[in-house]
Design goal:
Radius of gyration: 19 Å
Pfam families: Aldo_ket_red (PF00248)
Helix content: 40-55%
Order of helices and strands: HEEEHEHEEEHEHEHEHEHHEHHH
Strand order of the largest sheet: 3-4-5-8-9-10-11-12
GO molecular function: oxidoreductase activity
GO cellular component, one term: cytoplasm
Distance between the termini: 44 Å
Protein name: Aldo/keto reductase
Number of domains: 1
Keywords: Oxidoreductase
Number of helices: 12
């Protein structure tokens, strides 16, 4: 590890005014449970454990990733290392035995049921940050946050987070209990939160954990790997949008090469430069991908490169399909 990397490894970011101190990059584990094609549990566990050894503290999972598989995988990886990590867990998405998606349930009784099973699968006594994966339109956010607040009082949860909600929902939730962070997609290809959501976070003293930094691999040149890869159904990877975006991605990769960065490092460096108080959550599936991501910490982007990259990258297509976009509280204006 270089001197610069060592300095970065010692740096931490506080999640909100009441949340924990975490390493400046988090590890997102969704891709380790089949969402992006085939996976290898042994390599996934090595990746999580290597991340911990390299100083990464925030490990992000969801109870519906692989229908419980991801939590059990994370549980195996952190056994004996619990005191070194903070677990961020999403809940609420409903799935069928065939892998289908059937909505969300964030009723108080469901919240406590989901948490019970997550604790068991993870093999832990408490969850550091617990958050509904999406806003349930049938349940007032005050009721959901109130239920998690009960879990905080009981010692089963340390902090409360949210995911993909808009400014008004943030305000309503924060009035019930302090919110540590909002998890939301953000990259040079997806800058929507800058308009209204990020200013609201700063006003309320809430942090953000930023996923989709690589735009699901689009910026790094990764492509869908068969029908089991859900990117095969996303607008940015398909049809006319996909063809247009290939040219942008080629330009992005040349930009990275000229600065002696990998495309992944460039994507991370841009986010760190634009939002230094927030934490990118990187979906590394292998040790090699993890090491590449960590290399971005030692390679900050110059201001002129940040501006130049923003002019260069214009991605065609929405980040999700039309139906999903219509249901995202974070997309409501």
């Amino acid at each position: 590890m270089s001197t610069n990397e060592a300095k970065q490894a010692q740096r931490t970011v506080k999640l909100g005014s009441t949340g924990p101190e975490v390493f400046p990059l988090g590890l997102g584990c969704m891709g380790m449970s089949g969402m992006y094609g085939a996976t290898d549990d042994a390599e996934s566990i090595r990746t999580i454990q290597t991340a911990i050894d390299r100083g990464v503290t925030l490990i992000d999972t969801g109870d519906f990733y692989g229908s419980g598989h991801n939590e059990m995988l994370v549980g195996r990886a952190i056994a004996g290392r619990r005191e070194k990590v903070q677990l961020s867990v999403k809940f609420g998405a409903l799935r069928g035995p065939d892998g289908s998606w059937s909505g969300y349930d964030t009723r108080p009784v469901a919240v406590k049921n989901f948490a019970t099973y997550s604790l068991k699968r993870l093999g832990v006594e408490y969850i550091d940050i617990y958050r509904p994966a999406r806003l349930d339109p049938a349940v007032p956010i005050e009721e959901t946050i109130g239920a998690i607040a009960d879990l905080v009082k009981q010692g089963y949860v340390r902090h409360i987070g949210l995911s993909e909600v808009g400014a008004e929902t943030l305000r309503r939730a924060h009035r019930v209990h302090p919110i540590a962070d909002l998890q939301i997609e953000y990259s040079v290809a997806s800058r929507g939160p800058e308009g209204n959501i990020f200013p609201t976070l700063h006003e309320l003293g809430i942090s953000a954990t930023l996923y989709g930094v690589f735009s699901r691999g689009l910026l790094t040149g990764s492509k869908p790997k068969g029908p089991g890869d859900f990117r095969a159904y996303l607008p940015r990877f398909t049809g006319e949008n996909g063809a247009k975006n290939e040219d942008v991605v080629s330009a992005f990769q040349r930009f990275a090469h000229e600065r002696q960065l990998t495309p992944g490092q460039l994507a991370i460096a841009w986010v760190l430069a634009r939002q230094p108080k927030f934490v990118p959550v990187i979906g590394a599936k292998t040790v090699a991908q993890l090491e590449d991501a960590l290399g971005a910490l030692a390679r900050p982007l110059a201001k002129e490169d940040v501006a130049a990259l923003e002019k260069l990258v214009t991605i065609s297509g929405e980040r999700y399909g039309k139906e999903q976009m219509n249901h995202l509280d974070s997309e409501r204006r």
